[in-house]
Design a protein that fits this description.
The chain has 158 residues and is mainly α. Helix 6 packs across helix 7 and helix 8 packs across helix 9. The longest helix is centred in the last third of the chain and has 17 residues. The radius of gyration is 17 Å and the shape is elongated. It starts with a helix and ends with a helix.
Length: 158
């Protein structure tokens, strides 16, 4: 990781953790972990992206999560509705990307639910120091992998 990227990620991490003296004391009293050096590498690039790009990353992360369900979908009308709702470029990108390593048997949600599902994935991927700003931050490695893949693909599509 280069110096400028590391400094930008560190600034985002410190801002999210609320690292003032009072915040550090309250966190220690509550037994919550503070930011660690390893968390800098986990700070996602999508946090500093424009809202429109964050929206696309969230949708693509959800599409990648449900990749196996998309592959199994036989209804052309349902796939057409999905492409119309999320954008054909994102659906094509999700279908061309390698399927996630971990197999899940989740059914494909309705297209209008994909953004919320993707947003939840992005938040679950965040390191624990972000829990103050994003209560559903879980430091989930599988969610972090999907979010990172989605972020790289959206950047490549731009």
């Amino acid at each position: 990781m280069r110096g400028a990227t590391r400094r930008r990620r560190y600034a985002i991490l410190v801002e999210a953790a609320g690292d003032g003296r009072g915040a550090r004391f309250a966190r220690r009293r509550a037994g919550k972990p503070g930011p660690r050096f390893a968390d800098i590498a986990k700070v996602p690039d999508w946090l500093s992206a424009e809202p429109g790009e964050q929206h696309r990353i969230a949708i693509l992360a959800a599409l990648l999560r449900y990749r196996r369900a998309i592959d199994a979908e036989l209804s052309g009308a349902r796939l057409a509705a999905l492409a119309a709702a999320v954008g054909e470029d994102l659906l094509d990108a999700a279908c061309e990307a390698p399927a996630p390593d971990r197999v899940n048997n989740l059914p494909l949600p309705q297209p209008e639910r994909l953004h919320a599902e993707g947003r939840a994935l992005l938040h679950a991927a965040l390191p624990l120091p972000f829990a103050q700003r994003f209560p559903d931050a879980l430091d989930d490695p599988q969610a972090r992998d999907l979010a990172a893949r989605a972020s790289r693909i959206v950047a490549a599509l731009a």
